[in-house]
C-alpha cells in the first residue's frame, strides 16, 4: 500500500515546518478536495498535516472588518450575522456551493485552494498539464462544456470552481499566511491565484508549506446590497456553468458604486473592473447592464463546447444586476 | 416483523424497517470467513490490442493472492447467448478472453488480495502497453451503419398502409428530428458479487435482478449442473435494467474463488459501473407526422439512428434502443413506417435501461405530436384524443383493457388543464415564465411467468404463511406486494405472512424486469393461496400442521392472438423558466395511469414517483459523454453524471384508474415499474415550449438552448 503519514498539530509554526520540510507533504483541513483527489489517484501526498486543531477556528466581527480564521467551516461563514448583513453576496455564494454535508466539513481557507473539476485533471490518466506538466491539455479539443472562457491559455482552460471565491474577488479581502521561514505575510485576495499561462500546475503564489491562517474581509458599504446568482443544470449540488457576484449602490437612478465578479467561466477568481467602470456613474438600466456584461466578457476565448457560456455569462450578469437593482433598499 | 395494528395493509412496507435499520443484507454485506477481495483493472484505450501486460509488481505486492489475466484465465464454458431467454452474459465476448480491446474500461485483469486496500494498491501497479486502433465513440463519427431486422423478436424495419403515398398527400405535415444522449442506469447499490465454492457447488451472492439468469450463465461458464449453482439476491439496491445480464465481474469472482479455494468479493467502483454494465444508447429520431387539417393522423413515419457496441457484432441477441415499438401502436395512424439504422461504437454493450425503447420513443413521438397540435391549432390533449387507438393498429388486435381516455380526463381535471391558455409565453409569475405541457405514457404489459410456493403453518390455532419465489426485490416493493396478495387471499393479517425472495433455491420465477414481477408472481401466489384455502376446508382446525401449495403463471409476450396487452397513462407538467438564463424547474407534475388493478398502493405510488423523477433526469440532466479523442466517458461518476437531487423534484401527484385487466391475470394487475418515465421528458419539453416559445429537440434540455 502507498504509505501515508497523518499528523495533527496544535502549533502553527510546527505545522508549517512539518509540511515545508517535506516535498510530498500537504495540509489537511476539511479534506473535501484532498481526500477526494487522493482516492482518485490524482494527488498522493506522503504526509498529511491536519490543521483543524490549530487556533484558527474563530470568526470575529469587528468594526470595519470581519476576521475569518482559516478553519472556519463554510457553513459557519455563510450563516454568520456579520456576513449576512455586511456582505450577503459571500453568504449566498457559500450556500450555493456543494451540499450541507460538504459545507459543514469544508473550511474557508480550503475553499481558496480548491482544485478544478476538469474531468481530464481528475481522471488521473488523460494528458493534463495541470496534473502532469508537459503532457498537453485534453480539454482544448475534448469535452469542454464546463471549461473556462476567461483567463485561459493554450496549456489549460480548467475552471477555478469556487463560488465563495467569486464573491471574495469583488470584496476587499486580504489573505494572511505564515511562510516556511516563520514570517507572516498579507496578500490581497486578488493576488493569491495565478493565471494558468504555461504553468497551470502552479495555481497560487503560495510557497510549499505556506499556511493560510485566515482572511480579513474589510467592510465595503456597497457590499451591503450585494447578491450572488449561480446558473447550473441541476438545482443543487453542482458547480456553476456561469455565476455572477454583484454589488450596487444606486442613487437617483445612477450607479454610484459597483463591484462585479464572474465565476464558472474563469481560470481564477475574476473581478471585472471593466464592467464596474461601465456601470459607475451611468444609469441603472438593463441597457447599461448589458454593456457592462459585454465589457466583462470582452476577452473571452471560447472553445467548441463552451461557446454558449459567453452569452450565458453575460445574461447571468445582466440578470443579477437587474434583480439587485430592483430589490428595495433595506 | 411487527406491523402497527392501526395501519391498513395498503399502507405498509413489510421490508421498510429492515431496510432503514440496516438489517436487510445486500450483497456487499456478506463477509464469509476467509474472504478475499478482488479489484478489476480496466483498459485505458478504447480500441486495439494489449501488447504487454506487466503484472510482476502487482503479484509481488503485499497480500496479493492471484492476478487473473487472459494469459492465465484458463478455460470457461460456452456462455448462453440469450436466444433461449434463460440467462444473459454481460457481453458476447467472455471475460478476459484475449488481448483485443473494444472499449475503454474493458477489464484486462483481476487482482485479488487479503484486503481491499491491498488489492486496490496492487491493481494500481499493473502496467499495460497497447497497440492503438481506430475507434469511434459518437454516432456522428460513424458512417458505416447496418439495418438490423429485430431486437428481442420485435421487427425494426416495418410498415403498414401506404406510408409514402400518405405522406406525400398529407395536408398537414410535421417533419422533425429529436435526439437523446447516452443515459446510464446507475443504481445506488454498485454491482457486487461474493462467490464461494464448496467442493463442486457454487454459492453466489450477487446484485442481480435475475438469480436464475445468473445460475444459467454461471453453470454454463463452469460446466456445472444448474442445481449445483445457488444464487442469492434477497435485497438489491436498485438496478434499472443494469442487473439483468450476469456481470463480467460475477463470472470472474467465481473463477477466482475456485482458483483460490476461498470466497471472493468484488464490488465495482462507480466508474466501473458507469463503464461496464450497459447503458441506454444515443438516438437520433426523425418523426414525420402527416395529418388532416384537424390533426387526425393519416401517417406516422419514424426513422431512428442509434448505436450498438463493436464487441457485439454477430451477437444474435444484441440489444439497442428499439425506439419504434411504441410509435407503431400508440395512435390510430392508418399508414406507418419505421426504420432503424445502427452504427457500431467502441462503448460498453447497450442494455435495457428503465423503459428501453419506450422512454426514447415517447420523447420524439410526444414532442412531435405537440408540434402538430400547434400547427393545426388544436389543444395538445385534444389532438391525442382525436388520434386515440381504439384497438392496437399494429397487431390489429383489441386491447385487453384500455382506459387511456379516463387518464386524460382525470389528469386534466386534477391539473386544471382547462385553464391553459393556448398561446406560448402567455403565463408569467414574477420573473418566471410558466408553461404547461402534457404527454401520453405507455408501456407493454409483459408477463414472463413464475411459480410460487405458499406454506401455511397452523400451531395452536395460530396461522402463519410463508410465500416463496425466486424473483428479486430491487426496491420495487416485491416483499410488500406479495405479502399483501397472500394476506388478502388467505384472509390473514399481513404481519402473519413472511415472504422469501431472491434465491435460486426457491420456486423459479423469471427476472425482475420488464415491469413483470408482480404480473408473473402475484397471480401464482394467489393460485397457491386458493389451493391452501381449499385444503383448509377439509382441515379440522384443531390439529397443528403445515399445508403447502404451489401456483404458477405462464409467460405471455404482449399478445396471445386474442388481445394486445399494454399500459397507458398521461402526464401533465408545469415548468417555471427564468428565460434570461435558461433555467428550467419542474414545479408540478400530475400523472394518472391505467395499469390494471394496483395491489399495493404504497409501493406502487413510490414506483410511479421514482419513475417520474427518473423522467426529470432524462429531460433535464442525464447525459453520459464520451471523449472522441481518447475514448473514455468523461463524466463516469455521480458528480459529473447528473441525476435529480431533492431540490429538482416538485410536488408529484400520482393517481391510477384501477380498472382490472382480467384478461392478463385473475388479479387484473399489470406491471407499473417503468411506465412512469415514459412521456415525462416530452411533457417537460412541451411545457418548456408553452412557457417560452422555444422548442428544444435534443436531450437533456439545457440552459444554453432555453436561454432567450
Instruction: Specify which chain pair forms the largest interface.
Output: A-B, 31 and 36 residues
Q: Tell me about the biggest sheet of chain A?
A: 5 strands, antiparallel
User: How many beta-strand runs of chain B?
Assistant: 29
- Tell me the structural class of chain B: alpha+beta
Distance between the termini of chain A: 58 Å
> N- to C-terminal separation of chain B?
56 Å
- Fraction of helical residues of chain A: 25-40%
Radius of gyration of chain B: 26 Å
Strand line-up across the major sheet of chain A:
4-5-8-6-7
Task: State the shape of chain B.
Answer: globular
> Which range does the strand content of chain A fall in?
15-25%
Folded structure, characterized:
- The complex is a heterodimer of chains A (330) and B (708).
- Chain A is 30% helix and 21% strand.
- Chain A has helices at 12-20, 34-39, 74-79, 81-86, 88-95, 100-105, 108-112, 119-122, 163-170, 189-192, 273-279, 286-296, 308-326, and strands at 5-8, 25-28, 47-50, 59-62, 65-69, 172-178, 184-188, 211-218, 226-231, 242-251, 254-263, 270-271.
- In chain A, strand 6 and strand 7 form a beta hairpin.
- In chain A, helix 5 (88-95) packs antiparallel against helix 9 (163-170) and helix 11 packs antiparallel against helix 12 (286-296).
- The radius of gyration of chain A is 20 Å and the shape is globular.
- Chain A starts with a strand and ends with a helix.
- Helix content of chain B is 24%, strand content 26%.
- Chain B contains 16 helices and 29 strands.
- In chain B, helix 14 packs across helix 15 (680-692).
- Chain A binds chain B through residues 1-2, 41, 117, 119-120, 123, 125-126, 138, 141-143, 229, 231, 233-238, 241-242, 308, 311-312, 315-316, 318-319, 323, and chain B through 44, 62, 117-118, 121, 124, 431, 578, 580-583, 585, 620-621, 625, 627-630, 632, 634-635, 639-640, 642, 644-648, 700, 702-704, 707.
Set down the secondary structure blueprint.
The complex is a heterodimer of chains A (330) and B (708).
Chain A lengths: L4 E4 L3 H9 L4 E4 L5 H6 L7 E4 L8 E4 L2 E5 L4 H6 L1 H6 L1 H8 L4 H6 L2 H5 L6 H4 L40 H8 L1 E7 L5 E5 H4 L18 E8 L7 E6 L10 E10 L2 E10 L6 E2 L1 H7 L6 H11 L11 H19 L4
Parallel strand pairs in A: 1-3, 2-3
Antiparallel strand pairs in A: 4-5, 5-8, 6-7, 6-8, 9-10, 10-11, 11-12
Chain B lengths: L15 H5 L15 E7 L5 E7 L1 H5 L3 E5 L31 E2 L5 E7 L2 H9 L2 E6 L12 E2 L3 E2 L2 E2 L2 E3 L2 H7 L2 E9 L11 E7 L2 E6 L4 H11 L7 E4 L15 H13 L3 E4 L2 H7 L6 E9 L5 E13 L14 H4 L7 E11 L12 H19 L3 H7 L4 E2 L4 E2 L5 H12 L12 E2 L2 E13 L5 E10 L2 E7 L9 H13 L6 E4 L16 H21 L7 E9 L12 E13 L4 E12 L6 H20 L30 E6 L23 H13 L10 H4 L2
Parallel strand pairs in B: 1-15, 13-14, 17-18, 24-25, 28-29
Antiparallel strand pairs in B: 1-5, 2-4, 2-6, 3-5, 7-18, 8-9, 10-18, 11-16, 12-13, 12-15, 16-17, 19-20, 21-22, 22-27, 23-24, 23-26, 27-28
Helix pairs in contact in B: 9-10, 9-15, 12-13, 14-15
Amino acid at each position: 500500500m502507498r504509505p501515508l503519514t497523518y499528523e495533527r498539530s496544535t502549533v502553527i509554526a510546527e505545522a508549517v515546518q512539518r509540511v515545508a520540510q517535506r516535498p510530498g507533504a500537504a495540509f489537511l483541513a476539511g479534506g473535501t478536495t484532498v481526500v477526494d483527489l487522493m482516492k482518485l489517484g490524482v494527488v498522493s501526498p506522503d504526509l498529511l498535516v491536519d490543521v483543524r486543531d490549530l487556533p484558527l477556528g474563530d470568526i470575529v466581527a469587528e468594526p470595519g472588518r470581519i476576521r475569518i480564521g482559516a478553519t472556519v467551516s463554510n457553513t459557519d461563514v455563510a450563516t454568520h450575522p456579520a456576513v449576512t448583513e455586511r456582505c450577503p453576496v459571500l453568504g449566498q455564494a457559500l450556500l450555493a456551493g456543494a451540499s450541507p454535508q460538504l459545507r459543514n466539513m469544508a473550511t474557508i481557507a480550503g475553499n481558496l485552494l480548491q482544485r478544478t473539476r476538469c474531468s481530464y485533471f481528475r481522471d488521473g490518466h488523460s494528458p493534463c498539464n495541470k496534473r502532469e506538466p508537459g503532457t498537453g491539455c485534453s480539454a482544448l479539443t475534448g469535452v469542454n462544456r464546463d471549461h473556462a472562457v476567461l483567463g485561459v491559455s493554450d496549456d489549460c482552460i480548467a475552471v477555478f470552481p469556487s463560488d465563495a471565491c467569486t464573491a471574495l474577488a469583488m470584496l476587499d479581502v486580504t489573505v494572511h499566511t505564515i511562510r516556511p521561514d516563520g514570517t507572516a505575510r498579507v496578500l490581497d485576495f486578488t493576488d493569491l491565484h495565478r493565471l494558468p499561462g504555461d504553468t497551470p500546475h502552479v495555481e497560487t503564489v503560495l510557497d510549499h508549506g505556506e499556511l493560510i491562517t485566515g482572511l480579513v474581509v474589510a467592510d465595503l458599504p456597497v457590499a451591503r446590497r450585494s447578491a450572488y446568482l449561480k446558473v447550473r443544470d441541476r438545482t443543487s449540488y453542482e458547480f456553476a456553468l456561469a455565476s455572477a457576484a454583484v454589488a450596487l449602490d444606486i442613487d437617483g437612478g445612477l450607479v454610484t458604486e459597483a463591484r462585479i465578479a464572474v465565476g464558472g467561466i474563469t481560470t481564477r477568481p475574476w473581478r471585472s473592473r471593466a464592467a464596474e467602470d461601465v456601470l459607475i456613474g451611468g444609469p441603472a438600466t438593463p441597457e447599461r447592464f448589458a454593456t457592462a456584461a459585454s465589457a466583462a466578457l470582452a476577452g473571452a476565448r471560447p472553445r467548441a463546447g463552451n461557446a454558449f457560456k459567453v452569452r450565458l455569462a453575460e445574461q447571468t450578469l445582466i440578470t443579477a444586476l437587474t434583480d439587485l437593482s430592483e430589490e428595495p433598499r433595506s | 416483523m411487527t406491523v402497527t395494528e392501526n395501519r391498513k395493509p395498503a399502507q405498509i412496507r413489510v421490508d421498510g424497517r429492515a431496510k432503514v435499520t440496516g438489517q436487510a443484507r445486500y450483497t456487499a454485506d456478506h463477509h464469509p470467513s476467509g474472504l478475499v477481495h478482488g479489484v478489476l483493472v480496466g483498459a485505458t484505450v478504447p480500441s486495439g490490442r494489449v501488447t504487454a501486460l506487466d503484472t510482476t509488481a502487482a503479484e509481488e505486492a503485499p497480500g496479493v493472492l492471484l492476478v487473473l489475466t487472459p494469459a492465465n484465465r484458463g478455460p470457461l464454458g460456452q456462455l448462453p447467448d440469450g436466444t433461449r431467454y434463460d440467462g444473459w452474459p454481460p457481453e458476447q465476448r467472455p471475460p478476459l478472453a484475449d488481448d483485443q480491446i473494444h472499449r475503454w474500461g474493458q477489464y484486462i485483469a483481476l487482482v485479488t488480495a487479503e484486503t481491499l486496500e491491498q488489492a486496490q494498491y496492487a491493481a494500481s501497479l499493473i502496467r499495460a502497453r497497447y497497440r492503438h486502433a481506430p475507434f469511434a465513440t459518437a454516432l456522428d463519427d460513424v458512417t458505416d451503419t447496418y439495418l438490423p431486422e429485430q431486437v428481442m423478436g420485435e421487427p425494426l424495419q416495418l410498415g403498414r398502409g401506404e406510408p409514402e403515398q400518405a405522406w406525400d398527400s398529407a395536408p398537414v405535415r410535421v417533419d422533425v428530428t429529436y435526439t437523446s444522449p447516452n443515459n446510464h442506469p446507475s443504481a445506488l447499490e454498485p454491482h457486487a458479487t461474493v462467490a464461494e465454492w464448496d467442493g463442486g457447488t457454487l454459492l453466489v451472492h450477487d446484485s442481480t435482478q435475475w438469480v436464475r439468469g445468473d445460475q444459467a450463465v454461471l453453470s454454463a461458464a463452469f460446466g456445472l449442473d444448474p442445481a449445483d449453482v445457488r444464487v442469492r439476491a434477497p435485497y438489491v439496491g436498485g438496478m434499472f435494467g443494469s442487473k439483468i445480464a450476469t456481470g463480467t465481474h460475477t463470472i470472474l469472482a467465481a473463477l477466482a474463488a475456485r482458483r483460490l479455494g476461498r470466497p471472493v468479493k468484488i464490488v465495482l467502483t462507480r466508474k466501473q459501473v458507469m463503464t461496464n454494465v450497459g447503458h441506454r444508447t444515443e438516438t437520433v429520431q426523425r418523426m414525420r407526422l402527416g395529418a388532416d387539417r384537424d390533426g387526425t393522423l393519416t401517417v406516422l413515419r419514424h426513422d431512428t439512428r442509434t448505436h450498438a457496441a463493436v464487441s457485439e457484432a454477430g451477437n444474435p441477441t444484441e440489444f439497442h434502443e428499439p425506439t419504434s415499438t411504441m410509435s407503431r401502436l400508440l395512435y390510430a395512424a392508418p399508414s406507418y413506417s419505421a426504420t432503424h439504422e445502427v452504427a457500431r461504437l467502441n462503448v460498453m454493450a447497450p442494455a435495457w435501461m428503465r423503459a428501453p425503447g419506450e422512454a426514447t420513443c415517447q420523447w420524439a413521438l410526444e414532442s412531435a405530436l405537440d408540434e402538430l397540435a400547434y400547427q393545426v391549432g388544436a389543444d395538445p390533449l385534444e389532438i391525442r384524443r382525436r388520434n386515440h387507438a381504439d384497438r392496437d393498429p399494429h397487431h390489429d388486435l383489441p386491447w385487453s383493457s384500455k382506459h387511456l381516455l379516463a387518464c386524460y380526463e382525470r389528469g386534466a381535471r386534477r391539473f386544471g388543464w382547462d385553464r391553459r391558455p393556448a398561446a406560448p409565453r402567455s403565463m408569467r409569475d414574477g420573473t418566471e415564465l410558466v408553461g404547461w405541457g402534457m404527454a401520453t405514457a405507455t408501456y407493454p404489459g409483459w408477463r414472463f411467468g413464475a411459480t410460487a410456493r405458499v406454506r401455511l403453518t397452523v400451531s395452536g390455532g395460530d396461522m402463519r404463511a410463508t410465500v416463496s419465489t425466486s424473483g428479486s426485490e430491487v426496491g420495487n416493493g416485491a416483499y410488500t406486494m406479495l405479502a399483501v396478495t397472500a394476506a388478502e387471499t388467505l384472509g390473514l393479517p399481513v404481519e402473519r405472512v413472511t415472504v422469501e425472495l431472491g434465491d435460486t433455491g426457491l420456486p423459479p420465477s423469471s427476472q425482475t424486469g420488464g415491469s413483470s414481477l408482480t404480473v408473473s408472481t402475484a397471480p401464482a401466489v394467489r393460485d397457491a393461496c386458493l389451493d391452501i384455502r381449499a385444503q383448509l376446508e377439509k382441515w379440522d382446525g384443531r390439529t397443528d400442521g403445515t399445508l403447502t401449495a404451489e401456483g404458477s403463471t405462464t409467460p405471455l409476450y404482449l399478445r396471445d392472438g386474442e388481445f394486445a396487452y399494454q399500459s397507458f397513462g398521461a402526464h401533465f407538467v408545469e415548468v417555471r423558466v427564468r428565460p434570461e438564463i435558461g433555467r428550467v424547474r419542474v414545479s408540478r407534475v400530475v400523472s394518472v395511469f391505467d395499469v390494471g388493478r394496483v395491489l399495493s398502493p404504497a409501493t406502487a405510488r413510490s414506483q410511479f414517483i421514482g419513475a417520474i423523477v427518473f423522467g426529470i433526469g432524462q429531460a433535464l440532466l442525464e447525459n453520459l459523454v464520451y471523449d472522441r479523442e481518447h475514448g473514455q466517458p468523461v463524466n463516469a461518476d455521480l458528480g459529473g453524471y447528473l441525476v435529480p437531487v431533492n431540490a429538482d423534484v416538485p410536488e408529484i401527484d400520482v393517481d391510477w384508474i384501477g380498472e382490472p385487466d382480467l384478461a392478463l391475470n385473475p388479479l387484473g394487475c399489470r406491471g407499473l415499474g417503468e411506465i412512469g418515465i415514459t412521456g415525462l421528458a416530452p411533457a417537460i419539453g412541451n411545457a418548456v415550449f408553452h412557457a417560452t416559445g422555444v422548442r428544444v429537440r435534443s436531450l437533456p434540455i439545457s440552459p444554453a438552448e432555453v436561454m432567450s
